[in-house]
Design a protein that fits this description.
Blueprint lengths: L1 E8 L2 E11 L1 E2 L11 E2 L8 H15 L20 E15 L2 E7 L26 H4 L3 E6 L1 H7 L6 E11 L18 E5 L8 E4 L5 H12 L13 H9 L15 E3 L10 H6 L5 E12 L7 E4 L6 E3 L3 H14 L9 E8 L9 E8 H5 L7 E4 L3 H8 L5 E7 L2 E4 L7 E3 L2 E3 L23 H8 L5 E4 L1 E6 L4 E6 L3 H5 L3 H6 L1 H14 L12 E12 L2 E9 L1 E3 L8
Parallel strand pairs: 7-9, 17-18
Antiparallel strand pairs: 1-2, 3-4, 5-6, 5-8, 6-7, 8-9, 8-10, 11-27, 12-23, 12-25, 13-14, 13-22, 15-16, 16-17, 18-19, 20-21, 23-24, 25-26
Length: 561
Amino acid sequence: MHRVKAQLFNDSITLVNTFGFSVVTFDGVVGGAVEPRTSSRSFHFDQEDRRTVEELRSWAASQALLPPAPTMHLSAVQPKAYFDLTCQLLAKAPIDTTCTLLRVWDGTRCPHTLLKVIVKPNVTEGPSSFSAERDSLIANVLVYDNHVEVARQLKPGDFLRIYNLHAIAGSSKVPGLTSSQSEEVDHLAFHLHGGTAYGRGIRVLPENSPDVQELKRVIAAFPECDKNNDTELSDSKLLEVWSTPPESLGAADPMKCCTDRSCGHDMRPVTLSELKRSDPGGVHHVRVQLRSYEPHRLHQALKLYCSKCSSMQDVPDDELVASIFSEASGDSGPCSPPPWALSGQVEVPGDSPTSPTRAVSVLLSTQLLYEGKTKELLFLMGSTLEETCGLAAVYQNVIPVTASGGRLALLDLAAPFLFRGRKRYYGCKRCSEAAVREPCAEGVQLIDEKIVADTLGVQQLRFVLLMKLQLQDASDTLDVFLWRDAESFFGVSAEDVAANQEAQDSVRETMDFLCPQGGSTGERPWLELCLAAYRAENSGQKQTCYQICCTAVTKPSTAHV
């Protein structure tokens, strides 16, 4: 390092950069490549410097990774001190756009009279009042400027490390001062100034941190509230009350969870706040309720997915499909049948009982005709969507086609390339090389959608269910996706949901059971879920996403409306 000044701060040597500062850095792994990285345009580095780097690596490998942090309890804080504070956040409130109030404690009592800041209860996140005993332990921390955005992300109950906190005595300028709040001249105030000098900032500590475990021990050893005050519940009791499912009238046992996990993972459930603070990746178990979901129109949850290019799209509505059929019928010109097909006509009923029937062109495979399988496959040209659906009830496989340049061609793949009874099958425009060909049915007992798709060169799209659920527990809320394991979650296939009213009703009943419209939180069942966490990119930004996996809903037989 070039142009740094060494000075003593909190009994530790601190290096402060000055004008003209520059630095050359190296990977600290012993035995790794010695490749200098520098902020300077020019520097000198020779063999002697290389030996020095290797010696430093060996020395550093035998040392503690970090020097002990200059942490301090509230009970030891003195005016004018800068210190690091390990604490628990109890409540927070915005003062203005440049300042946020954090109410924290560490289980010790500051010997000095502390600053009091009065804010309106309706802007406070977390409890707005505490017992007199606990209130005497709480410190008001005012964070400024760039730290305000960090403070917005904090949740009451988080364990924090606040770096380079400043204890200021005699401050009379209190942010958010109101007419009901007198100036406090001789009280000690805690300020986290703007900027990042001296490592200034806020960090959320993980639950498994030794500092958090020690802080929990200290807090647990202190009386929770006034002995004569029986109305205040501890945080743990509040969590217990919230997390315990309500009892049904006349029942002795609480409502059981209404999901089954099939993942086989042996791990303890975590709260949603713990999950959000954990490293991305892996699987987690949670015990939650469903707060909301989307889309509310459940037919919009049905999507078409391509396993080849991983694209996903909405299922076209009947109006769009009907217009494609109509356009194809109007554009059809003369067309000679291919050599493997026999052409003919079939009568289809009119649009109403009084309308006359009309004939539409069909083509049959000569091979299937020879094998007596005339009902197994039909190429249909010039029909409407309604007429195609009617013939699909008679023929096992109906393929709508049109004439293009004197040759048979499939319709635009925004329309189904195959009808099988009430089921429709779609193809991917990007991945398909569609052409009308004769299906090879030799040795095949049943022609299914896979054989048809392979014959036509169509990359078949798969029906999937995609929903976004908002989960909640006592600690936080979390948005998760239900997709890959949606079929096992609901106990129905997405293909059946697309064609079967009974399957559609089953999904709707399940969602009404998990999240009753207009119902209170207490009426919603508890769900034990397995969640997979993963990193994904959205609009160029990396973010952590969560997906429900290996979980199925088990509705009780009494859950009927």
